[in-house]
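Postdoc handover notes: sequence design on the structure in folder B. Input tokens:
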């Protein structure tokens, strides 16, 4: 097996070495998120090293449901996951969810699987895949009546877009939301017409993000599953469908999919609505929540309001709508500066979509005038 990464086993002056965690206030822990040695940093989320045995995860994307999930895992299953020592939330209106979370948990000694997977012998890779399959089977043996994250809140994960969805109060609402997205995709010819509607009858403990970057291999060759942000109660097919849709770590995905429980029909359903799950384009506004610009093709896609009704785009604030309005003065350079306009004209005549960078630079207000043979700006009637 692999040797642990040296920087993960770094010995030195960690801020809480030799100190009792119970004596440390929440305010002190919040300040340590900015000053302690960083193990991981992505967007608004940081993981910092507090001591030889403790780390803290914090930021605007850390919600209370993650700590509740880890406590449930520790009490109800034998899955290897970090143990929570303290968790708290602080209101922060500058964050997308209006809160900033902090979780103090065990530091898992070992090496992230994404750092050593390709160097492992085939037999070791096979053994790791079997461990993953055992984890998933154990999770799927835990049936939960209430769908979604533990304790409620927004539904997050690969199938709920980057900015979450819901919350939904019961399985009927979840099923209705997915079927509405499916209907939208069918309406704009973004998925086959023969895809049947979703029918969710069972919800089980689901991780939703099985990936080498979320697995730690310890010195005994045992796997630990970390980062439970997207976990909750979801249909069993979500696990294998998320693996199937993962674009990176193809060798790992193939090895895992060969042994984990599969649901071909449901995987096909979830794969057919990727149009509605595509990452929306972000525009910068003064408003604290993220506002998403519409990047749909003018001749074949629904309006922004239709996408918002479908849950594919979040609602914008009044200030955001003003910025996104096509009638507002465009901050982008004139379309006459585009040197590729002839190629784009040909693409338009062939009913091919306008490239995204053109739509973004023109505020989605550019179309080709076939009669005059030049690009012009106008309000698209999407």
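Designed sequence:
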């Amino acid at each position: 097996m692999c040797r642990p990464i040296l920087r993960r086993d770094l010995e030195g002056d960690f801020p809480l070495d030799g100190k009792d965690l119970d004596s440390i206030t929440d305010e002190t822990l919040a300040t340590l998120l900015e000053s302690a040695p960083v193990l991981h940093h992505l967007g608004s989320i940081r993981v910092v090293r507090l001591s030889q045995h403790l780390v803290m995860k914090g930021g605007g994307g850390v919600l209370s449901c993650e700590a509740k999930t880890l406590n449930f895992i520790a009490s109800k299953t034998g899955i290897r996951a970090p143990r929570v020592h303290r968790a708290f939330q602080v209101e922060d209106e500058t964050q997308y969810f209006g809160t900033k979370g902090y979780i103090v948990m065990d530091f898992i000694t070992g090496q992230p699987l994404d750092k050593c997977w390709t160097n492992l012998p085939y037999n070791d890779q096979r053994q790791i895949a079997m461990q993953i399959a055992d984890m998933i089977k154990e999770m799927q043996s835990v049936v939960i009546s209430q769908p979604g994250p533990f304790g409620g809140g927004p539904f997050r994960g690969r199938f709920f877009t980057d900015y979450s969805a819901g919350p939904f109060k019961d399985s009927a609402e979840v099923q209705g939301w997915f079927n509405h997205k499916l209907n939208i995709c069918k309406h704009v010819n973004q998925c086959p017409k023969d895809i049947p509607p979703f029918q969710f009858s069972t919800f089980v403990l689901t991780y939703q993000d099985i990936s080498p970057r979320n697995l730690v291999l310890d010195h005994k060759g045992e796997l630990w599953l970390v980062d439970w942000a997207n976990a909750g109660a979801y249909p069993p097919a979500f696990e294998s469908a998320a693996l199937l849709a993962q674009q990176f770590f193809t060798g790992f995905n193939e090895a895992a999919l060969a042994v984990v429980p599969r649901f071909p029909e449901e995987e096909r359903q979830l794969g057919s609505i990727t149009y509605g799950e595509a990452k929306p384009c972000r525009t910068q506004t003064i408003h604290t929540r993220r506002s998403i610009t519409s990047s749909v093709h003018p001749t074949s896609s629904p309006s922004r309001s239709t996408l918002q009704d479908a849950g594919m785009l979040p609602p914008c604030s009044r200030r955001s709508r003003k910025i996104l309005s096509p009638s507002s003065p465009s901050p982008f350079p004139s379309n006459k500066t585009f040197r590729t306009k002839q190629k784009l004209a040909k693409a338009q005549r062939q009913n091919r979509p306008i490239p995204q960078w053109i739509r973004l630079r023109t505020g989605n207000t550019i179309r080709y005038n076939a009669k005059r043979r030049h690009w012009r700006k106008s309000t698209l009637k999407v």
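Context for whoever picks this up: The first helix runs from residue 26 to 35. Don't rerun without checking with the PI first.
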